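Task: fold both queries, return tokens.
Query 1:
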Amino acid sequence: MIHNSETTRSRFSSPRQMHLGLQLVNFSNSVLNSFVFVVLGLSLERIIFEQRRSIGISLRWLAIGVLVYVLLLIVRFIYGRFFISDRTNRSALLFALGGVHGTVTLAMTFSVLSNGVSRSLFNEIVLIETVVIILSMLIPTIVFKVILPLDADTLNKTTQLKILRNEMVIVGVQHVETMTLSNKVREIVIYDLRDQVQKNTLKAFFNQWRSVTTDKSTLTSIQSVEQRRALMQAFDEERNFLYDFAKNHMVNSEYIYDLFSEILLSESLVLDPQNQVI
């Protein structure tokens, strides 16, 4: 919490470090969250291999897992009903069903092993935990589909972003076509802009790739500067296009922010100080 409050007021003092830190945190979260299920899968494989006969005979682990999940729902519902600001049955139900109970459950399971329990009891606890995790993934998926209304904005977001991105790139390409550029630079810049909407054909990609790998088609230093400036101006036009949409409240601001951030990231590649890309 201290780190988050600190970075919100000092994020622009070193933007490259801040951006790298955010990416590393997101990457670490993804790796650790996935690692939980890797460990669970390895444990299940070992347990099933060792006790493949007794698992099918005694289903006590399944009954206990279902019971634990039901008790967990009841406790979370009571907490959501009486200790959350929006004290309604609907909000409490959503709170009770929300979330996949995997990371903390797995940590508690392995903490039991460190306390000296028998291997057979530990294996049963892992099976019970697996039932709880699977139920916490399946039941909310089904129930939320029934009790929650369809979010039209979410359903239409992909389509609207695609349309808005296409119109944005068209504006950028039209601006480049009015600029005084060499044919070679204009072709490369338009190719880069069309790459924002993945409209370049495979043939065009191989042509550009061949031109980059051959010395005869390498841009001169003046042409590289010309290309960089043309892309920057095109990105400016795209941002102005998005700004007009946002100013007139023509689309959801969230869509504008998504596309705006894409343009800024693209421009950061153009302005690469080490000249690693262009």
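Query 1 returned. Query 2:
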Amino acid sequence: MRLLFTALLYCLTPALLVRLWLRGRTLPGYRQRWSERFGHWPAMPEGALWLHSVSVGETIAARPFVERWLSRHPDIPVIITTMTPTGSETVQALFGDKVHHAYLPWDFPHVYRRLIPRLKPRALVIMETELWPNLIGACDRHKVPVFLVNGRLSERSARGYHRLRALTRPMLQQLTGIAAQHWPDAERFQALGVPPKNIEVTGSIKFDLSISNTLTGDIAAFSRGIRDRPVWVAASTHDGEEADLLEVHRRITTVLPNALMILVPRHPDRFETVASIVDTSGLPYSRRSQRSQPRDQDKVYLADSLGELMVFFGAAQVAVMGNTFNGGGGHNPIEPAALGKPVLVGPSYTNFQSIISAMQKDQGIIVTDSLEALEKRLLGLLKSRDLRDTFGQRAYVFYQHQQGALQRMELWLDRHLNLIDPGADPSRSASPPTISSNR
């Protein structure tokens, strides 16, 4: 099965290059550094910890782990690979020259036969669920341990893995270990053939984000320009959502004329497309790329920028998570919860089923089954400070109770890599995560 996958990948290489070129029309970074996609990297240190973080979200989530690794193991350098230019930009913005960076090569076996013996990595650490059979197979042949950390596996993804089990089962069994976010994720990995002894449930390290003084200052500065307006943020929206959410906002403004919607598309290559959608809505708007603050007459503020979502969460009174009204499976609700904001999602949240179900049980999130229900709940929250405080506090308490995953994951990884400090106290590991299965 892997030979068939590899043959198909080689056949599709021209199409992949065309796709990069086309995507480069809106993000020029896709037309650059193509040689790295074939494993021709700049000089890299031997014996490094190799972390693969795919794109922006995974890289931001990995930030505390990387910073603490550099502090705890200064003699072991870090290589970070991503798949996207925005991921590459995020690595540069967060770490500068503290780490080494390249694009992850496409999954050609001949590339990894050459690259891995040259790098001799201490270990490959993969964030969440970006698994490639030839990469993992090559690491297995060269005795490089491979760890999947902050691992999550939705029911939908598990069904896909099961359909391709002739390819995925051997790959999963070659992993040295999986640090799963929650018990349901662990159970799905086990059902796909991963031995239970190779799985540790550590929680989601995204709960261990910290609110810096810089972020607090940025939120305060942006909020001054909004003053006392009712504000909600539509975060990480996808194709098929923006027009509907703009119509929801149009109806909200008939009740709250000075209400402001901050619209944050997930992907930068859609910024112009979304601007056209806002144009069509007829709602007055301005763009972050053109104005640092929304105007008084604006009904919509298009956040066509990178790395500022937490600022907009902090300035808004209510957060609505995108990719939940289009069947897409949702995005992580932890960031607004960490800022004590009421969080709303639509009916599609399979990507974060465990977290959202647990939050719902604790009344820390509002799940709406339609756009009409979303409008009603938004209006209620925007009108009532007491209601906002109640749901925001519940979200924040849930976030606090889930912290400690990073410490658990570090201890688990250090044990596997024989990096435990002889003087370390095993009790420093935080309490186990509280999100469990429904058994």
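Both queries returned. Flag for query 2: Residues 219 and 311 are 5 Å apart (CA to CA).
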